[in-house]
Write a structure and sequence with these properties.
Three copies of one chain form a homotrimer.
Chain A (H helix, E strand, L loop, with lengths): L2 H8 L6 H6 L3 E6 L11 E5 L2 E7 L5 E5 L13 E3 L2 E3 L6 E2 L5 E3 L17 E2 L1 E4 L2 E5 L13 H4 L5 E8 L3 H9 L22 E6 L2 E6 L3 E2 L2 E2 L3 E5 L3 E4 L4 E10 L2 E9 L7 H8 L27 H6 L9 H10 L17 H18 L27 H8 L5 H6 L1
Antiparallel strand pairs in A: 1-11, 2-3, 3-4, 4-9, 5-6, 6-7, 7-8, 10-11, 12-20, 13-14, 14-17, 15-16, 17-18, 18-19, 19-20
Chain lengths: ~400, ~400, ~400
């Protein structure tokens, strides 16, 4: 990869090509449960290199404002969350969720100054247990995407997040790196999902589907897909279904949102046991933080005896931490100009090519893919739908979430 | 504010305009009690970005030397404080408080080398419980200023210091920001000092006086002043009287010296109770350090329930920490180019204008104001002196400290 | 010293003049006991600014590889140490100690890709309790030097290492700074080795010998030497004999290897008592690390009362920590352009001159000195060999290690 393309893919700050592309999409900014009550404590949010403060107002709406008060740049994090607005504690300027200055008691009565001042505010929507922000041009704000996991009842979903101390794309790449399943996760259930030889990638409206095309394995017809949806979503063919979103905190840190969900029923005890024993995609965090207990500073609590025994290929506990650890080990921004890619890196190459093509098309005036809400209404396939369908045909005909009416008609 | 003016006000290193201006004044470098005994342990001092070492010699004089030995640049902090000089432990070179090399045992007997070597040494004076240094051109060294709090007996004064992790001027501005009193400190005694509407600023010889001009509040004639004295002093109209000095450690850290003093009598138990319960300007430090226990890393131990209750506007305990916290929250060097100043920011604007004017005048060849010792002999007014005096007249006629003879004559 | 020469001496990265010179020599990379068993856990190594991973393979050979896997740059530190090779846990690529890719299971059977990929690998030799690496051009690899301490049985040697948080040459200079012995180490046995006035430096094939020329001290003929051997070795005239090697970790950190050894017999209880009470050159490390317990962050646990008492000139316990502390106190890379050198700095000046001359000669096409194994076969003299020999004659005739045949013939 050229240094130019590497830079183009990695940088997400305001004004960068990728940064502006990402800002066209709704992005998870904070968990809903971190803002549990109206008029509660504000929360710091860092998103694409911008420092912000989130708060839930009296009516339950979430505001996401610039951390800096426009008056004298004091931090709104220390603000008082009052009647439908947050008030800077330095001089009492108060702003609502839309960024309007609704009170400016430091100025003389009758002053018109407050009508001239706004604080940067990003629109928010709450879906699927998270607060989502839109940071792009107001006139281009899309409808919220029909991501299946955001549309199921809360009881059907388990959502966590944790920080990965590396660039967002490096982490996304890990999510679509099919060839690592047979190694990094050896000794876990994920290993059983290792790709057969004929691996395929098929473009869909909002991204692409990647997976096997039906080779025979242990007498069963193997067929799995995972899907990439713009700009950083992954749908995972686990049971229950899984999903990830890798949201850039800045260019050297990423917030990974991880989901288990069952479209048909509430998660049961067995699902929750899997989620909470940290063997799978949800690591255990240091309480009160978004950092995993097993992290870079303690070598992910690697157990060399366990590794030597072969029971775990890495000696690191849990699929989520194995991914996180190996991705972070590549450095804050892995150098893509020194790699040696093989045929097993098809999905990685496809992902990069896909994003570079999108950037080029947008630069040439096209709309990015995946803005149409229905384009995100996808579901991964865990088994072949039957018949002689090719991988591409199977994805095209059965990779969408059907609504009740459609399902009934089938 | 233009980026140029912002830079001009913020930078205090050697060779900068503000740095050279500050170096024309005596500045507190260390507390006297940190050098409790002759020939005791040396202490590190960082002042205006220069790394220094202070020590008290056999005769009780304090030396303030370059941290680096001129021989091979070893740190004099590890030096032996010996008979009237400090000796570098690497090769035994010894320097007195004036920077002379008084012994150089590593060189052959009869060598003249020691007479050719000096270490950078700044003159020091002890006043008011602090060691003050003069870092400017020797030929321009002024007399020590008649700051009232430095002239009262030790029993009449309570002096502490702590670090603010931000630029010095940002902290000074907080001290003269009158409009924050009604907000940041709501729920404290300082709130009662909130400025009435007709707020005035009057230039005095060494700086300016700022305050109300006598509006009626709760049936009382309101009248308070605070004073700015060059280059970073504030006189505070509390009971007992208060004072601050914000001394640049470097451009991103400031040492705030805070004083209570009573010109007429020793501080009594009630005064000390106020000082030591940390509700007011003196925060509690981590023992053995100059850092407050409630600091940036723990969000100043903000109590969100207390804040929500309205009993404290910030939920941060103590006027000193409220100021420190909000000033630090603006960043290491707050960006003055993105502010939105209103009419309530009169004092801030005045302070900046005043300093920029002084810099311009000095650049044009004038002497800075405030070098004349008597010009610092000021006292804030806590009540209107009576009669029909305007604010300016009251400050001019009653804002000076009278000596015994003058007082008797009145 | 000019800024150019200062830079020339300090920088050791790949492509710098000094960096390339150092890479011509075998350098200690890790202690043998840190890789105690075949197929055990790998160890991180940082050498001359390069991040590497060391592992002991099934046959007991030590490999020293690039930390980054050439495939996708994951860290080989997390690798599995398997049958004669280390396997990256991301995709299973496996490399042997010579850097060959011996397995690439992620690629299709029959793929030739693994024969096209190599990982950077440096040749290693184990000698004297350490693993030594050669990082220079393969065609210029020298024979291993005949350093005496690497040639004695393990029972005759005590070897430790610890980090100095400063540039390598600053630390080496401390080792050859003769004039500090009478000061820094006052109150220790090293003090008794203080140089008489007539101090001499004599060039030898691999470096130089420095010491006294036989002045009379306390009725004894004083005669001691220490030796500098290319590129960073010191031989120390203690009892038992001592040695140091200052190996650049990077330009701001140095790994100091410290040795006691007795060529004739195993170290006895008294020798070990001296080594382990940390009074001498071996400091006590934080368990599991290479950092001394008394370090920069705790001011080397300086005891100011002890220092004031005169029992220890520094108040810092142990010769090794006194050296480490004062060298680190000069800053990460001490500024050699502001020094004031005297006649007592002869050895420092000689060392710098020597290295600058070597760099110039190598630049002009010469081979560096000290590559010939026998040139390192030196031993310091602890007493005058007798007769009228000058210092230079004594070093020339008696400064070599004699082998058994030679010794018998004498």
């Amino acid at each position: 990869m050229t240094p130019e393309d590497h830079k183009l893919l990695s940088e997400t700050g305001k004004g960068t090509a990728m940064g502006e592309l990402l800002r066209r999409f709704w992005m998870p900014a904070v968990l809903s449960r971190e803002l549990p009550e109206a008029d509660g404590a504000p929360v710091r949010v860092r998103l694409l290199g911008e420092d912000l403060v989130a708060f839930r107002d009296t009516k339950g709406r979430v505001g996401l404002l610039d951390e800096r008060c426009p008056h004298r740049t004091a931090s709104m994090f220390f603000g008082r969350n009052e009647e439908c607005g947050i008030r800077c504690v330095y001089h009492g300027w108060k702003f609502d969720v839309d960024g309007n200055c609704v009170d400016m008691p430091s100025e003389p009565e009758g002053s018109n100054f407050k009508h001239k001042v706004k604080i940067k505010a990003y629109p928010c929507i709450e879906r699927g247990g998270a607060v989502w922000a839109y940071m792009g041009p107001p006139e281009l704000k899309p409808e919220f995407p029909d991501l299946e996991w955001t549309m199921v009842p809360d009881s059907h979903r388990y959502l966590t997040r944790h920080v990965q101390e590396c660039n967002w794309l490096q982490a996304v790449e890990g999510g679509f790196d099919t060839s690592h399943l047979a190694f990094l996760h050896k000794g876990t259930e994920s290993e059983a999902q290792r790709p057969p030889e004929r691996y395929q990638v098929v473009t869909i409206a909002a991204g692409f589907a990647a997976g096997s095309d039906g080779a025979i394995f242990r007498n069963e017809r193997r067929f799995t897909t995972s899907m990439f949806l713009m700009p950083f979503h992954k749908l995972i063919p686990t049971r229950p279904l899984g999903a990830h979103a890798w949201v850039p905190i800045d260019d050297e840190n990423t917030m990974l949102y991880s989901v288990y969900f069952n479209p048909e029923r509430a998660l049961d005890d067995e699902d929750m046991r899997r989620a909470r024993n940290f063997e799978h995609i949800h690591p255990e965090n240091v309480p009160g933080t978004d950092r995993a207990r097993a992290n870079k500073d303690n070598d992910y609590l690697i157990d060399r005896e366990l590794q030597a025994s072969g029971a775990s290929f890495t000696g690191i506990y849990g699929v989520g931490l194995q991914d996180c650890g190996i991705q972070e080990s590549m450095g804050r921004i892995a150098d893509r100009t020194v790699e040696h890619l093989g045929v097993s890196d098809t999905a990685i190459i496809k992902l990069r090519r896909y994003l570079l093509d999108v950037l080029a098309a947008v630069n040439a005036g096209s709309e990015p893919p995946g803005l149409e809400p229905a384009s995100a209404r996808m579901r991964v396939l865990r088994q072949h739908p039957g018949g002689d369908l090719s991988f591409a045909e199977a994805v095209a005909q059965h990779g969408r979430v059907r609504d009740a009416a459609e399902a009934a008609a089938e």
